[in-house]
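Dear support,

Our group has been running a series of protein-ligand predictions, and this particular one with magnesium ion is the one our PI (initials K.S.) wants archived with full inputs and outputs. We had some confusion internally about which version of the output was final, so please treat the block below as the authoritative record. The input we submitted was:
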Amino acid sequence: MIRIQKGTKDVLHFESYKWHFIEDKIRTLAESFGIKEIRTPTFEATELFARSVGETTDIVNKEMYTFIDKGNRSVTLKPEGTAGVVRSYIENNLSAVPQPVKMYYLTPVFRYERPQSGRLREHHQFGIEYFGSDLPITDAEVILVAKTLFDNLGIKDLQLNINSIGCAECRREYNKVLIDFFSKNKESFCPLCQERMDKNPLRVLDCKEDKCIELNKKAPIVLDYLCSACKNHHEELKSILDCLDIAYEVNPYIVRGLDYYTKTVFEFISKDIGAQGTVCGGGRYNNLVEQMGGKSVPAIGFGMGLERLIMVMEELGLSLGEDTPCKVYIAPLGEEQRKHALNIAMALRRNNISAETDYMGRSLKAQMKYADKKGYEYVLVLGEDEIIKGKGVLKNMRHKGQDREIDLSQIEKYFLE
Ligand code: ATP
Ligand code: MG
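Confirmed final output from the archive:
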C-alpha cells in the first residue's frame, strides 16, 4: 500500500464541511471589507522566494520544496502567499489602477518542516494584502480583518501582539547595537544563530530555541531605536487600536520570520494548541514591491494558518458547521422502477433539492435501514403501482404522521411551496 506523504493530510468527504464553513466565513468577511480574491500559481521561480522572503530565513534556507523541472528551471512550491501576490501586482501593473489594491488568497502552502502538532509540510493559509497605503489606519484595518474573522467564528482568547521593526534607517542603527550585544554572548547562542548574527541579526530574535529565547530577553529592543516617522506610525496605530477597542500587547520580541517586513509586525497567538500557537502573522512590507522590480509602493498583509485555526476551534468546542445530509431518498423496488427513480431525482436536483436513489440493488427493507442511517429527510418508495398511477407517498422521516401523497411528475412542487 502506498501511504500519504509525511506532514500532509487528507480531508475526508465527511469532514470537508468544516473547511467549507471556514472558507465561506472568510469569503463573506473579505467581501464585506471590499477585498477581492487573487489566485496565483502553486509554483513560481525559486528566485522569487529567495529574493523576497530572504536568503537567511528558515523558509529559504531549509524549508522550500524546490526542484528542477524538465526545462531545467528551478521552481519552488509556494512556501508563503505574499511573494506570488507581489510578483503578480508588479507583472500586471496593478500600481496603475486606483490604490489601495486589496486582495485576499486561500492557498495551500508547502514547507519541508519536521511534522508535529500544528506543523505540516502542506498547510493552508488565508491571507490578505493591501497595496498603496502607508497610513497607520491601513495597519489597523488589516489587523481588524483578522480580528473580525476570529470574532465571527466565536474565538475570544487569541492574544494580539504588535511590534514595530522600523525602516531601513532605524535598522541600521539598531543592527549595530544588536550585533554588539550578540558578539558579547556569541558562544551561548545556538549554532544557527551564531551564523545568523552577522548576516541578519534581527533573525536571531526570532529563534525558537529555549536558550536563545532566554538570552534574547536581555537584548536591546528595536522600539528604542525607531526613527521619528516609524515611532509616530507605531503610536498612531496603537491609538487607532485603542479607539477600535482592540486589545493588544506590545511585544518587542516579535520580529517575524521573513526578511521583507518594515514598521508594523503582528501576531495572533493561541494558548490552547500547544507550542505551535501562532495562528496569524503579518506586517508591513514597504520596500518589497520596489525591491522586486516594481514602483515604490507600500504594502501590508497577513497570513493565517487554517489548520491551526481549526485546531483552536475544536479545542474550544466551537461550531464548525455541520454535514448536511442529502434531502430525498428514492427507493425503487425493482429494476424497472430504478430508471424512473433517476428521472425523479433529476427533477428535484434541477430545483436544487438534493436527491439520491439506490445504487446497490438493495431490498426495500435494506434501503429503509440505509436511508435512516444516512439521515435523509424524506423517502419516496417507488413500486409498480406508483409508476402506473403517477402518484406516490413522500414519507417524512423526521416527523411521523406528516407523510404526503404527491404527483410523481411534479414532486419538486412540494418542496417549492
Ligand atoms: P512558526 O513560527 O509557527 O513557524 P511562521 O512564522 O513560520 O510560523 P508564517 O510564515 O507567518 O509562519 O505563516 C503564517 C501562518 O501559517 C502561521 O502563523 C501559522 O498559523 C501557519 N503555519 C506556518 N507554518 C506552518 C506549518 N508548517 N504547518 C501549519 N501551519 C503553519
Ligand atoms: Mg516557520
